[in-house]
Amino acid sequence: MGGRVRDWREIRDWTRDQMMTRVARFRRLKGSDGGLPDSPLPECRRKLFNVLGFQPPETGNSPVGANASAQPAIAIAEGFNLGYCKAKPGKGPLMHNHDTNETFICMTGRWRAEWNEGEAMEHVDLNPYDVISFPVGVARRFMNVTYDEPNKEHLLMFIIGGNQPQAEFTPAAMARCEEWQSKKRRA
Questions:
Q1: pLDDT value, residue 71
Q2: What is the reported pTM?
Q3: Which of 28, 37, 50, 177 is most enclosed, with most CB atoms within 10 A?
Q4: CA 112 to CA 125: how far, in whole Å?
C-alpha cells in the first residue's frame, strides 16, 4: 500500500500506522551541527533539523549536510525537503548555492537573507512568517539577527526542491573555511 502509485487519481486507504510514519514531532527531531564545510566555523554554528528528508546526493554536498541528511524524521523522495535551522544571533552559514530552489520562512526571531557577494551583496530581514525564495544559481546565506535576545536561539524553516539536491559554497566561502582550518592547524 505504501509503494509508488501508478496513477495519482487512484484513491487508496492508508492505515493509521502507515500515516504515523509520516508524522514528525518537533520535540523529537534530531538535529545536526556538522556535515558541511563551514560547520566548524564559530560564526556558522547552527543546528539543522531534517524533517522531510530527501536522499543525499551521489556526489557533492547535501544542502543540509551529510549528518542531517542521514537522519530525516520522515524519509521521502517526493521532490522536496523541509527542515529547520536553529541558531543564536550572528550565526548562519556562509554564502552558498543550490542546484534547486531554496525557500526560507522565518518562524521565530528575525533572520537576514543575503544574496550576491562583495559590492553586489543585497539583503532583506524577515520577521515571523515572512518568506523568501531563492532561484537556482543565486548565491545566498541566512543569519539570525535577533540581537536584542543575544543568548536565544531562533528558528528558520527551509524548503529545498529536488530528490537529491546539491549545495556548493562560493569561492569566498571556501577561502574562509580554508583560512580557519589553517589557523587551527597552526594553533
A1: 84
A2: 0.89
A3: 50
A4: 4
> Which residue type is seen at 70?
A
- State pLDDT tens for residues 29-76: 988 898 899 999 999 999 999 999 877 777 888 888 888 888 889 988
DSSP3 helix / strand / coil % (the chain, rounded to 5): 20, 30, 50
pLDDT tens across 23-42, in order? Answer: 999 999 988 898 899 999 99
DSSP secondary structure letters along 45-99:
--EEEEEEE-PPPSSSB-TTHHHHHT--SEE--SSEEEEEEEE-TT--PPSEEES
Phi, psi values for residue 181, rounded to 5° = -60, -40
**Which is it for strands 47-53 and 74-75: parallel, antiparallel or unpaired?**
parallel
153-186 pLDDT per residue, tens: 999 999 999 888 889 999 999 999 999 999 888 8
The span from the CA of 42 to the CA of 106, in Å, is 22
Count Cβ neighbours within 10 Å for each residue of 36-71 and write b for 16 or more, e otherwise: bbbbebeebebbbbbbbbbbbbeeebbbbbebbbbe
Contact 87, 112 (CB under 8 A): no
CB 154 within 8 A of CB 146: yes
What H or E segment, with its residue span, contains residue 112?
Answer: strand 111-115
